């Protein structure tokens, strides 16, 4: 009986040992299989996130470029105020010279009597506004000032 009992105990121990060896032998392959399943399920979502991020990066780079370009345009516009002041002064000089020419022509025309064959129209004083093709009246530009 003891012999039979001993054989039963040995059988149980060897079965447990065999089962443990089988689990240990197959455990890495099960872990790798689970890892492969996880990668297969999550990889498409990760790829989609990556393409979304690349698209957002391109859009933000375009927006950054546009903002930098607009900032440089504004800076160059503020630096151009010197040129506008110079243009304003030159326009004022041209207007005063034109008025002087018109006044001198008006005096010289009034000194000489007009011939009966060719009537000369009276000179018109220069106007600060003009009429455009659509009929609206346009005044001086925003950079000019009243004298």
Structural class: mainly alpha
- Gyration radius from CA atoms, angstroms: 48 Å
Oligomer: single chain
| DSSP, total strands | 2
The helix content is over 70%
Q: How would the global form be characterised?
A: rod-shaped
SSE succession = HHEE
Number of continuous helical runs? 2
Stretches with pLDDT under 50, minimum 5 residues: 129-133, 140-147
Beginning-to-end CA distance, first to last residue: 132 Å
Features:
mainly alpha, two-stranded antiparallel ribbon, 2 helices
Description of the structure:
With 147 residues, the protein is an all-alpha fold. It has a two-stranded antiparallel sheet with strand order 1-2. The protein is built from 2 helices and 2 strands, in the order H-H-E-E. The radius of gyration is 48 Å and the shape is rod-shaped.
